[in-house]
Write a structure and sequence with these properties.
- The protein has about 120 residues and is an alpha+beta fold.
- About 40% of the residues lie in helices and about 25% in strands.
- It has a single domain, classed as Beta Polymerase, domain 2 (2-Layer Sandwich).
- Helix 1 packs across helix 2.
- The model has no long low-confidence stretch (mean pLDDT about 95).
Length: about 120
């Protein structure tokens, strides 16, 4: 079993999103291939194990080592009827957002579940 799948199962276990492991893994693999991220963090209700099917979405923060064009910063997709919101930022932008205390980023870094980390410091 891949490390990615193990981490996803750990996060999804005991939630109403447990059946999304395979489609979410496939989606994350495509993000990894396309964006070559330094870090991927699942945040929000799923990371807090408060995910409610039909009400919650899946929030994903992707950190890359290059500038991100404005039209590539946000993605919205659906996996088996569950909305998936992806926010893509450069490492530099994330550091600035954390310094400014921007809520989504602080919450993701402090309370999110790290799915992938390639030698990037956490706060």
């Amino acid at each position: 079993m891949s490390l990615l799948r193990e981490k996803l199962k750990e996060i999804l276990n005991g939630t109403s999103a447990w059946d999304l492991a395979e489609p979410l893994e496939s989606f994350l693999k495509s993000l990894i291939e396309e964006l070559k991220p330094l870090k991927i963090i699942i945040s929000g209700s799923l990371a807090k194990r408060r995910f409610v099917r039909g009400l919650s979405d899946i929030d994903i923060l992707v950190v890359v080592d290059h500038d991100v064009p404005r039209d590539k910063r946000f993605m919205l997709t659906s996996l088996d009827g569950v909305d998936v919101e992806v926010t893509v930022v450069s490492k530099k932008e994330l550091e600035k957002a954390l310094e400014e205390g921007r809520g989504f980023y602080v919450e993701a870094v402090k309370h999110g579940a790290v799915i992938l980390s390639l030698n990037t410091p956490s706060r």
